[in-house]
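Researcher: Last one for today. Full complex below.
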Amino acid sequence: MADEKTTTVGEEAAAVTENADLLRFATAGSVDDGKSTLIGRLLLDSKSIFEDQLEAVESTSQSKGYDYTDLALLTDGLRSEREQGITIDVAYRYFATPNRKFIIADTPGHIQYTRNMVTGASTADLGLVLVDARQGLTEQSRRHAVLLSLLRVPHLVLAINKMDLVDWDESVYEKIHREFTTFATKLNIPDLEVIPISALQGDNVVNRSENTPWYSGPTLMHHLEHVHVASDRDLVDTRFPVQFVIRPKSDQYHDFRGYAGQVAGGVLKKGDEVVVLPSGMTSTISKVELFDTEIAEAFPPMSVTIHLEDDVDVSRGDMIARPKNAPKPSQDIDAMICWMTNEPLKPRQKLAIKHTTRTGRAMVKDIQYRLDVNSLHRDQEAGELALNEIGRVQLRTTVPLLCDPYSKNRTTGSFILIDEATGVTVGAGMINSGA
Amino acid sequence: MTNTHVDYQLSQLDQLEAESIHIFREVAAEFEKPVLMFSGGKDSIVMLRLAEKAFFPAKLPFPLLQVDTGLDFDEVLSTRDSWVERLGARMIVATIDEAIKAGHVVDDGKTSRNRMQIGTLLGAIEENGFTAAFGGGRRDEEKARAKERVYSHRDDFGQWDPKNQRPELWSLYNGRIHAGEHMRIFPLSNWTELDIWSYIHREQIEIPSIYFAHEREVIERDGMLLSVGPEIQPKGGEKIERKLVRFRTVGDRTQTGCVESEASDTAAIIEEIAVARVTERGATRGDDRFSEAAMEDRKKEGYF
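Model: Here's the assembly. Have a good evening.
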């Protein structure tokens, strides 16, 4: 038919890219667990690896005298790492299927890189922990689960790798599964999936394996594609940290005054009664805009511009919330802190703190305990936190923070600590619910 | 007014847009003197579009900085001028020739113009006292970039220290720098090539015409198709052919190859990419081919 509009492959591909949703996941595991091989496999089997990348890896594998293509080489980015054969930093990888785009935060597994894993997990919807079927749960895999739980990553996958090396023995899978489930009762893991795989051979990674007739669960890729993440966001508690005040002062937009920011929680719409914190002034939303278009509602993680009916004083660092549902401004902060620098964190230490769009200074009042991330033991005699250690800390800040418990909102519940002399990020904090 | 989102779902492209806008606003709020490094290529044009959205209806709260190699394609320069005019943006052009005169770079006759951009760029950042420079780099481009932060710290010499990067958590960016240092900002870190093209398609963004298929006189050299011009002339057995080609990246004329293509609009380009077998840098950038670690070396020196 002459007037029927046909869509081209390109238009379809554009529509797919435009409409797909997004899953950010963090991987943890060491080189020995086959983590890099698994990621290489996901990239290869989803056709996200290109000819020249594969060629480079093939030639490196040959020059190292391997008789197979080392997929791990695809993900070991920096030259020093390639030489040492270790992964020392968080690397981000990308692949897509028709339904979803994936961002992998690929993190090193050893305890001396805990800070890197915390970094990778901070933005993840899902955590992927790898264990070697021959070794079962190790101190390291338990630690990874603890960190993912602490960072409130809502979905966890335990991938039992190298199943080929235990002859695809169901009892090995069952034993590790049971052991992990028991351990996980002490943690906050709302959703768990345990998958038997061989990253090297590709079993149950993208394609269902014939070697595991006893396993009826999803393949890893199927699970990654279908795990439901939309409901992980808080659409109830309105939180809008003001990032930037837009005042064009041009002839055309003489009276324009918009509050720009990214929605951290809840839904904002015209007519909503709101409170501006910390001042406590109230007003009503007169308009919500995205670029040059008025929109009906804004929700996380949209970056929008909000207009208020009244000419109240609003600036960067303020928070827009609802009068009956607002965080209580507080200068006394109780938080779990992951320490990220060589010089230990000590009581009375002063640091800069950044929480949402608000910056101030903080003093360490007390280090209540250090958490042993392997055993969950709380050491109340610790007195300080060394590099890669995590503990419960009380801070006093110079400015009130407009915060929520991290368990409620990962954006308004988190902060970073900055060394004022070096400017380096030295700590990551997760605010506890009212102590 | 646009329709209510019944399911409160944001597509991945909208999420990327929201994240990039957040980064632009954060930098504008926290840095004294930001600048946007503008190459005229599709990635820097997407950056401009996102910056436009971030501050609308105000003008961009920072100028654009372009390093003029003297070897830029005319089509790229005219697209640049059209964007600058529409946005009413301030434009600073740093030329390699001026940088040679000022002693920021040395022309030894062996170094490519592309490589001389590093000194020119660092010279311009220092001279103008810029404290933050937006770049269009993406983590999917190259292995060294996969580990780079959104806020990437540069020391007094403009160097990147990949082993000593600041942790970057949640969407809490740390913009603290000392005098003389600056921060490179990569708002497109999480975008892939396909995302960029889909966004150009959706937003109907104006990009240089050489991205689309056109007839051009080319010669084949080292497996690349180079455009015949004042600097590129056939030598020893090479012959000039007229082909239907397009460019996948727009660097300087002497270094940037084109590919045979019939893709005359964004949808056709997306189709091409969706089935592409070679990454864009590997295919057409002579400067990345010297070694597997070429990009890492140039980045350490202060490349984009």
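Residues 288-293 of chain B have pLDDT under 50 and may be disordered. Strands of chain B lie at 34-37, 64-68, 91-95, 132-134, 151-154, 182-185, 214-221, 224-227, 241-247, 258-260.
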